[in-house]
Predict the structure.
Amino acid sequence: MQEMTMIQAINNALRNALESDPGVLIFGEDVGHNGGVFRATDGLQQQFGEERVFDTPLAESGIVGTAIGMAVNGLKPIAEIQFMGFIYSAFEQIISHAARIRTRSQGSYTVPMVIRAPYGAGIRAPELHSDSSEAFFVHQPGLKVVVPSNPYDAKGLLLAAIEDPDPVLFLEPMKLYRAFKEPVPTEKYTVPLGKAKVMKEGTDISIFSWGAMLPAVRQAVQKAEQEMHIQAQIIDLRTLSPLDEETIIASVQKTGRAVVVHEAPKTAGVGSEIIAIINDKALFHLEAPVARIAGYDVPPPLFQLEDLYIPDADTIRAGIERTMKY
Amino acid sequence: MSKVLARKPAGPVFNLVDADGTADPQLLPPLTERQYIEMYRWMKISREFDRRAVMMQRKGQLGTYPSLEGQEAAQIGSAFALRKEDMMFPTYRENGAAMVHGLPIRQILHYWNGRADHFVKPEGVNVFPVAVPIATQVLHAVGYAMADKFKRQNRATLVYFGDGATSKGDFHEGMNFAGVFRVPVVLFCQNNQYAISVPYHRQTASETIAEKADAYGVESIRVDGNDVLAVYQATKNAVYKAYLGEGPTLIEAVTYRYNSHTTADDHTRYRSSTEVEKWRTGRDPILRFRRFLERQGLWNENQENLLAHEIQTLLDEEIKQMKQCGPSNPLHMFEYSYQDLPLKVEEQRNEFIARRKGGGIECRK
């Protein structure tokens, strides 16, 4: 065990993966000599050489497309897209190919690759660096989408993603990269994909969230519990595709009330899908409509206004209150 | 390299002024003394603006900032070759070029200060707003110029990008369209040797960027990007060619970024100080042009001091005005996603206003 930030835990996971599987390769823009703009790959090229950890030309479609070729040819590529906002030029490779080759070839070819991308607002980055566009990818069958919210999960989920036989988009909340430390085992372990985590037990309301929103959710819950004398259950979904429907439904069946919190724009966000699942499978357990606390339906603004765009603890608390008092 | 299929050697680099300021008077562009001095003035303003911006970022007054220092000749020389009515598509690093083409300094400061609401194009300023994805603007510029051709508008469009951008599909697609449709566009690459940490030789196996044009049937020129007059002349020729309906040109300006990619990057991790110093002391574009002006008898120490003072005063005032502007209006976040606000966004806006009442944030309309 070692105290690690999320970025250190990711670095440690990548090191474990490179050590244990000679077919693992890491590549992308600035991941080699520079060790990644956030230092996620720091020291890995020095340790494992330029054949296994290397800088590519500046070309996201090229990075993802060649990763697909490597994956179908038996390697385990881990491609880094420097910021999720730059993933769009690789969109076709992800949507039309990474996610479909298994179906297209009826299982003759598979694409066991991971695409890592920092994402989300809150670090005063320039335009487009702050997008939370997970919903674009969750909509695509054949692709898994994972978002950790703490160092322990980041490492375990990333190692599980690398072992996974399908393509996984691994989204890393930038705001949490260095937000706090926690004990993380230095040896290899996995946290299963597709399984949500109950972060806190409760009986009166379920709060569903992921990634960078969880610290704000915890603050909001603490306040709401004191003010309203309630017990809220906090669920970190961790994998957005496939969603852990069992945990979502079980929680709503227990509490009868729910709030979904995400940073991405509200319309057609993953929150809408969670509410649809609840409507399908737990409607008669509901005591109130499910509240959605989300970003506005506008592009994330430049940094002067970005904190006003991101849902904060007060907004979440107000959502909890509205749902409790319905 | 295979001896059977040998590669064509790279062409020469176009150069007019040597490092010591000497030049062949027969080859100089037909500029007035005043124009020479104006060019120099803008190079100095760009550098001083850039240094101030980096300092302001360090103090938290600006967000992440991409420095242009070292690239003044490439930016000013090329922008100077445009007429006011010609269109410019800059990247986030072309602060100097954008200023020359009419974008007010204060607006550039506001943008890096994280407020989009003051980055509105003034009437008659043909500078397109910067976007951060790489190479995407090449296609926009080609399309813009195609529209000019369609509308029989006799003007040129100039698009900037870096060496890293030439790795992206959009660059190649833009070049191809430009070639096929003989588009009145100037594709201006500032080859500053690094795409963040990745050096030129890792970006492409081509010896030059200029030679990439051959594959698309586009003419190209490789120019000394630290020689402002060579950059000016090469761009002027390309712009005239565009006016005459003779199609696109790719210009590769060979230059160097002195500082990190942005203030969030640390260039000492990937290159030596010796390399940086070699460019700074041996090939500095401003120093070279000053030596040229002095040799021509157009410049002296006294003028230099007066200019330094003028720039100081100018930037002090611009920065003061930027600071006095106060925080951004939060409601601007909702204003420009659509022309007519959809009902759901209007509701979100109203909720935002209601929630912020008494919250201490002034919502100025």
Summary: Chain A has twelve helices and 14 strands.
